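Annotators were shown the component list below and the corresponding predicted structure, then asked to write short factual statements about the assembly.
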Amino acid sequence: MKLDKYTAILGNTIGYPDMEGLTDRRPLASLPFDAKYRLIDFQLSSLANAGIHSIYGLFQRDNTSSIFDHVRSGREWGLDSLLSHWYLGFYNTKYNDHTTDRAYYEQLLTFLKRSGSDRTVYMGCDMLCNIDIRQVIRLAERAHSPMTVVYKRVPASMVTPANEVLEVSADDEVIGKGTLPEYRAGLAGVDISPDTSTGLAHEFADPDELISMSADIYVLETNWLIAQMEEEVKNEHPRKLRFLLRSLLEEHRALAFGYTGYLANITSVKSYFDANMDMLEPEHFYSLLYSNQKVYTKVKNEESTYFSPECEIEDSQFASGSIIKGRVKKSIISRSCHVDEDSFVCHSIAFSKVHVGSGARVEYAVLDKNVVIQPGVTVKGTPEKPLVITKGSIVEEDIIR
Amino acid sequence: MKTELLALILAGGQGSRLGKLTQHIAKPAVQFGGRYRIIDFALSNCANSGVRNVGVITQYQPLALNEHIGNGSSWGLNGVDSGVSILQPYSATEGNRWFQGTSHAVYQNIDYIDRIDPEYVLILSGDHIYKMDYDDMLSHHKENHASLTVAVIDVPLEEASRFGIMNTDSNGRIMEFEEKPAHPKSTKASMGIYIFTWSRLRELLVNADKNGVDMLDFGKNVIPAYLKSDERVYTYDFEGYWKDVGTIDSLWEANMEYIGEDNLLHSRDRKWKIYSKNLISPPHFIDGHARVHDSLVVDGCFISGDVIHSILSTNVQVKDGAVVEDSFIMSGAIIGQGAHVRRAIVGENAVIGDGVVIDGNVCGVDGQNADGAPAGTPSAAPVAGVASMPEVQVVGHNEIVGVPDEA
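Structure shown to annotators:
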């Protein structure tokens, strides 16, 4: 394959208010996942596995140091070789804004025009999956489709107001779209105005009904995309790429590609927590991390994890470099953690360098990096509302939700 | 710019005492401690000591070693002013250049060394487990105005006759060198780590070759020649953990000593990290049936069975009902359901079939063919009738033990 045939744009996410401090100091893209990864690893690995070496990362200007620190030259994803390109572009508007400034598009247009690529892949970091992009590209090429979108059939309970629901024809073309309530109202023939629709998704939903949710992953003809962007940038407040692309789906009867592998929609602490816990089910773990496509992450030189004679472990995952002496059940423990004697960690996620003191209890909690739980202290959330302990906190008194 | 110090790692030995483990790979490439290969210790010491140029001299089965070292980026040795070169024997107009000894291997790579143009060369072996600051050794070499400094370690008197022993004066100047003396006069054993002032060594090796003098081996020829010509030869006293892992027993022992929250090497000390080429794997998974006690586990492992006082390297699977005890399991190995592995070293990607017993504690008649494997009795099983001391059992790389042929 010619190296510069495909390019990719790695979009940042739209803002999610209920991440409870997990995204205060880092973009969602660099949120740790399953002990060893960060969310951006999955997108970068999908692109690397598809042989795409020219990537434009689009990030909000604040809090980008964790992205720099994690991706650096892109060596782990093969982005540091002579013929590869890894650009970072920044924009100034807020996460939550739908619109942006013209500079956002000017940088992007320069990148795309210089690339000389045939097709461009767009993906965001809030959809966690391990997709074989080559398959989507092949389909798009065979159908000569300027716009191909990836969707997955998911239970309605997974769909949030921020997601786009697609109506896909028997010929795999997008023939309708909207938020979940709009989609349901459309089916029922009810007219529903946009401002009352948000937030109502769960109220009248059958949570198990399967919905075609857009994964916001696209394969686009580069020249076609450039034309669309040039049109958009004429506006004083152009929409962000994600919203521009969504707006084009129906009009251009985009080709729809149904993804069947594991997918998690990370929009809240609860969905983030659940996606991590999914990894403790071998079925999901194997689907995401042991498929034909490897997931690459930043290399860390850590020692092995030591399990002491008194530790008790049940259904848990660990990265390297930790010392485990307590009881760990249904939990995910990242690099270089200490779980001391007689402590109990259950249904929880510990980011790297967390210290759980002796006799401490941690249940349904997400312990951010460098958190210390002092000996004997109890930290407890609920399955519906997991408790987040923010980065670097030293917890000296019980916190029970 | 002139380079101050060039390290040369002698990694060409066959390591025949490691038997099956070095059948297809060089000894320095044998795995150690869950995440490492033996040579990582020498390479990481170089990186941590600020040695920027390293030549790795290979000869025997270098494939795995070359792949592991690559461009040296895993040890940060791929910078603008640094590099790792793999030095292999080659043919030339004056004949083929197989290395016939340690110093001969250095002499044969004289062109490479001249190109780097170092003031000093550091000679290392690629088969020792230790942490050492070579920069400190170099300062001693310079302070003493030495032309050769030999790193020594204090060994128990009863073991001294297994080593090359340095007899020194009160200043640490070497007066006499005895290779494996029957009646050792000192307990300062050579670690096979030397710093030479390169101009002097170069002269010696070139002249020896010109005059047909046998100068093939550092211990046998070069050090005695230095002493005979009254060169300034000093010892450098090393204190700390140092282990030659040249035999099955010592390799197993060193691995067992490595298990723990801390160990004799203090390998968790972040100030002197050991680096390695990382295999990319998901976190390790311990399920509801597993018991893991007093063990080291790394990424990619999947444990359903019991693991007691053992090391599991990357991507090892221990299935339901299996027991692994006092063992070192190399990467990718699979321990089948209900299999028992005790006091053993299991090679890379080996497969231990369901119910197979490999037990280094039970030797002789009891242990023999305990698995009742139909075809290809595991060569790991002790030989019938030789009932003796318990012996560490070895399963070779890619070896399949007790799995019926499905064809």
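Statements collected:
1. The domain at 280-407 of chain B is CATH 2.160.10.10 (UDP N-Acetylglucosamine Acyltransferase; domain 1).
2. Chain B has two domains: 3-258, 280-407.
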